[in-house]
C-alpha cells in the first residue's frame, strides 16, 4: 500500500497513545474499540498498530474475500468452460452418443475439423 493512502485511512481512525493503553488497561481500551470498531495505537505520535473488534475484523475479511472472488481470472474462466463441456460426459446417454459418433464415417470434404469452430 502507498504510504499516503495508508496515512489518510489511519488519520480517520480513533487514536490512543501507548501510554494511555498502559493507564487504562485492556478493559479500558476494549471499551474504546467496542465504540468505534477500531483503534490506532501510537508511540511518540506515530501509528504502530490497529486494534480491531471481532465484528470489524469479520467485516474486513468478508470484503477481502469478496474482492478476491471479483477479480477476473482468465484461467478460472477457462477452467469453467472446460468443466462445462466436460460435464456433458456425465449425461445418461453420453456413452451412446459417443459410440454413435465414432461409428459414423468422417465426412471431411477436404477440410480439417477441430474444436467448436468446425
Automatic annotation (TrEMBL):
<comment type="function">
    <text>Antitoxin component of a type II toxin-antitoxin (TA) system.</text>
</comment>
<dbReference type="InterPro" id="IPR006442">
    <property type="entry name" value="Antitoxin_Phd/YefM"/>
</dbReference>
<dbReference type="InterPro" id="IPR036165">
    <property type="entry name" value="YefM-like_sf"/>
</dbReference>
<comment type="similarity">
    <text>Belongs to the phD/YefM antitoxin family.</text>
</comment>
<dbReference type="Pfam" id="PF02604">
    <property type="entry name" value="PhdYeFM_antitox"/>
</dbReference>
<protein>
    <recommendedName>
        <fullName>Antitoxin</fullName>
    </recommendedName>
</protein>
Amino acid at each position: 500500500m502507498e504510504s499516503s493512502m495508508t496515512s489518510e485511512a489511519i488519520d480517520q481512525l480513533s487514536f490512543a497513545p501507548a501510554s494511555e493503553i498502559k493507564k487504562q488497561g485492556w478493559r479500558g481500551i476494549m471499551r474504546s474499540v467496542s465504540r468505534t470498531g477500531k483503534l490506532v495505537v501510537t508511540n511518540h505520535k506515530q501509528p504502530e498498530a490497529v486494534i480491531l473488534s471481532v465484528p470489524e475484523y469479520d467485516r474486513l475479511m468478508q470484503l477481502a474475500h469478496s474482492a478476491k472472488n471479483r477479480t477476473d481470472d482468465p484461467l478460472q474462466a477457462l477452467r469453467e468452460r472446460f468443466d462445462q463441456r466436460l460435464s456433458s460426459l456425465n449425461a445418461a446417454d453420453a456413452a451412446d452418443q459417443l459410440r454413435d459418433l465414432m461409428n459414423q464415417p468422417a465426412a471431411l470434404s477436404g477440410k480439417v475439423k477441430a474444436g467448436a469452430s468446425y
